[in-house]
Amino acid sequence: MPMRLIRWPGDIMPVVEMIVDSFQYPENEAWSVQTDEAEQLIDGMRNVARIWPLVRLMQVVSPPMRDMLQGYLWEEDGRIVGVTIVQRRGSTDLWVVGTVGVLPDYRRRGLARKLLEAALELMRERGATKTILGVIDGNLPAYALYEDMGFEQYSGMVEFDARFEEPVADPVLPDGYQREPLSPHAWQPRFELEKRITPEALQRYEPVQEGRFKRPLGMRLLYPILMRAQGMKDQDFVIRTAGDGQLVARGGFTLPTRGKGVNSVRARLDPEHADLASYLVGTLLHEVVTLSPGHRIDFTIPRWMEAAVAAAEEYGLNRRVEYLLMGMQLD
Asked: CA–CA separation, 90 vs 63, rounded Å?
């Protein structure tokens, strides 16, 4: 049969190269996988393939890790022409559809539907109760497919990007707040903030559960090795109110370490503390450009974090693409 389960690590590089080729949109270059993204992905996954025996060992130690990077691919004419990749989010019963891609010459034949249907059945077999995915706002064929299969839109994300020749000015933290570093494995602060600020409408498909933030033992052991293999390092911090120590914001970034790739920035902000938005965005931009100059910055922000979206625009970031988040109940 042309459709089969993905087999790692042998399929890693063919799948990565196929994904880069399938996510090209000549009519809208902003939607396409950018050259720096492709270089980082190919280089990083090539190194992940080399340490895959260690990944397999960690999957034996930590059962939730067995649901990493599951899915199906479609083969014709001696090559991979379509793929769907899904995985469990942490140790919860929520699964994420990370990739649905078909090469341009093989589209409009129902391959994406068949691949996704098989992946949905795989999720159900593994105990999933819901699944989510993101689709580019304006990609009408993909949106129509997902809607027809039972997905419904529940939120959205805005992806910004920018290049700065010089770091932006280092902003001053407003009075009444204090900043602290955050360890990659400190899941409680992440859980605490997300639980308090996530809009109720999102929680139907993205409930804030401990298992989404608390990494299993195998992942805690494997995480630094995976980061090195992919040529990346990250750094995170939190901001609390100076009086009662309430957690009100989180920021962080992932930087390439091998001279190629993208600076990826992330943030979460309590809407009740919108006065922090300019500082939060400004300090992230200042630090990534200082630590990793010359790389494009990618910054994806939930639409509901309106103050952070506005701050990104004030700093001159380019609104590259918007994503619609869609979910489906599986139980």
From this structure: 11
**Residue 121 CB partners (closer than 8 Å, separation 6+):** none
Containing 323, the helix (H) or strand (E) segment is strand 318-329
Q: Where are the alpha helices (DSSP H) in 150-253?
A: 187-197, 217-229
Q: At 268, phi and psi to the nearest 5?
A: -135, 135
Look at residues 243, 251, 234 and name the one whose alpha carbon lies nearest to residue 180: 251
Integer Cα distance of 141 and 156 in angstroms: 18
**Cα separation, 265 vs 288, whole angstroms:** 8
Phi, psi dihedrals of residue 15, rounded to the nearest 5°: -70, -45
User: What is the rounded CA–CA span in Å between residue 182 and residue 222?
Assistant: 19
Phi, psi of 328 (to 5 degrees): -145, 135
Q: Which of 152, 60, 147, 133 is nearest to 94 (CA)?
A: 133
- Sign of the C-alpha dihedral computed for residues 26, 31, 36 and 38 taken in this order: negative
Residue type, 46: R
Q: Residue 4 CB: number of other CB atoms within 10 A?
A: 12
> Would you place residue 1 in the very low, low, confident or very high pLDDT band (cuts 50, 70, 90)?
low
Tell me the C-alpha distance between 70 and 248, whole Å. Answer: 35
Nearest to 155 by CA among 206, 108, 118, 109: 206
Torsional sign, CA 309, 134, 45, 63: positive
**Which residue is listed with tokens 């939190």?**
238
DSSP character at residue 137: T
| Type of residue at 194 | E
Look at 61 and 158; give whichever has higher pLDDT. 158
pLDDT greater than 70 at residue 198: yes
Task: Output the pTM of the full model.
Answer: 0.95
* Burial status of residue 29 (CB atoms within 10 A of its CB: 0-12, 13-18, 19 or more): exposed
